[in-house]
Amino acid sequence: MDKPYVSVVIPAYNEEGNLNNLMNRLLPVMRGTGKSFEIVFTDDGSRDGSLRILRQMAESIPEVKVIEFNGNFGQHMAILAAFEKTSGDIIITLDADLQNPPEEIPKLVAEVEKGHDVVGTIRMKRQDTVFRKVASRIVNITTNKMTGMQMSDYGCMLRAYSRGIIDNINHCQETTTFIPALAQTFSSNPTEIEVAHAERSEGESKYSLYKLIRLNFDLMTGFSVVPLQLFALMGIMTSLAAVAFAVFLMVRRFLIGAEVEGVFTLFAILFFFIGIVIFGIGLVGEYVGRIYQEVRRRPRYVVRRLHGFEK
Question: What transmembrane ranges does the database entry give (predicted)?
Answer without folding.
Answer: 230-251, 263-288
